[in-house]
Amino acid sequence: FGPPGTGKTMLGKWIAHAVGANFFNVELSSMLNKYVGETEKYIKAVFYLASRMSPAVIFMDEIDALVGQRTDKEEDITLRMKNQLLQQMDGVSRDGSKAVTVVGATNRPFSIDEAARRRLTKRVMVPLPDLTNRIKQISLLLTKHQSTNGRVDMSEEDLKTVGQQTEGYNGSDLANLAREAALYPVRELMSQLGDELGRVDANLSMARPLTLQDFISARTKCKPSVGAHAMDEHIRFAQEYGSA
């Protein structure tokens, strides 16, 4: 669990890859069926197939939508789906002979039903990137820019400055920031070419190098998407229910 854009979905896929397990991605849209009993059959089939193809990882992105808090006013189809999911998760945890692991990811951990939370025994917060990891990600984004013939004129100190100015940014925010910054040299090139633009085989190598100033300018347009209040909620959940 953790704020959006921190790589929780990627982490779920990496777990399966790291242990050489088959990966099953379960989504709410693929589960729900208007015909009575079909949703439960689908859930049973997923868990049965995973047990037959073990080792396996069953990954549920946005798990709060699948096993959110149950209420008296809930529609019958979603209530049956949640109950069936909980039963199957319980069966996986009890049957030690089957190497099947259920991994869930959520931006709203407090919305998960208590019965599901009990079955998800390891509850790990994926936080926003710290300064070191922000610098690493920006460096990787610049390397990707260079791989497409883009030029970069930024020192290690410039990278550190960008990292310091992007506290509170998640991975997606940093990618958006780098994308916006990379547009400044392109816009200048297009302005310089003017009427010649259609007659010249323009590419990124013709644009000036990307600089620190481009990131500073882009930062006025690309703000962090995670508020301080949301981060406080995740920290509170980690303190109350987290296992790592």
UniProtKB/TrEMBL annotation:
<dbReference type="InterPro" id="IPR015415">
    <property type="entry name" value="Spast_Vps4_C"/>
</dbReference>
<keyword id="KW-0067">ATP-binding</keyword>
<dbReference type="Pfam" id="PF09336">
    <property type="entry name" value="Vps4_C"/>
</dbReference>
<comment type="similarity">
    <text>Belongs to the AAA ATPase family.</text>
</comment>
<protein>
    <recommendedName>
        <fullName>AAA+ ATPase domain-containing protein</fullName>
    </recommendedName>
</protein>
<feature type="domain" description="AAA+ ATPase">
    <location>
        <begin position="1"/>
        <end position="130"/>
    </location>
</feature>
<dbReference type="InterPro" id="IPR027417">
    <property type="entry name" value="P-loop_NTPase"/>
</dbReference>
<dbReference type="Pfam" id="PF00004">
    <property type="entry name" value="AAA"/>
</dbReference>
<dbReference type="InterPro" id="IPR003959">
    <property type="entry name" value="ATPase_AAA_core"/>
</dbReference>
<dbReference type="InterPro" id="IPR003593">
    <property type="entry name" value="AAA+_ATPase"/>
</dbReference>
<dbReference type="GO" id="GO:0016887">
    <property type="term" value="F:ATP hydrolysis activity"/>
</dbReference>
<keyword id="KW-0547">Nucleotide-binding</keyword>
<dbReference type="GO" id="GO:0005524">
    <property type="term" value="F:ATP binding"/>
</dbReference>
<dbReference type="InterPro" id="IPR041569">
    <property type="entry name" value="AAA_lid_3"/>
</dbReference>
<dbReference type="InterPro" id="IPR050304">
    <property type="entry name" value="MT-severing_AAA_ATPase"/>
</dbReference>
<dbReference type="InterPro" id="IPR003960">
    <property type="entry name" value="ATPase_AAA_CS"/>
</dbReference>
<dbReference type="Pfam" id="PF17862">
    <property type="entry name" value="AAA_lid_3"/>
</dbReference>
